[in-house]
Amino acid sequence: MENNDMEIIIKETAEKAKRESIIKQVGENAFNNYLIEKIPKEMMPNYKGFPNCSLYLYGAVRSGKTFTAIAIGRKYSGFTFRRISNLLREIRACETAKREQELIDNIVNARILVLDDLGAEKLSEFALSILNEIIDERNMKNPNGLIITSNYSIQELGKFYDARLASRILEMCRVVELPARKIKAKGEK
Question: In Å, what is the CA distance from 94 to each residue of 74, 84, 97, 116, 146?
Answer without folding.
Answer: 29, 16, 7, 21, 24
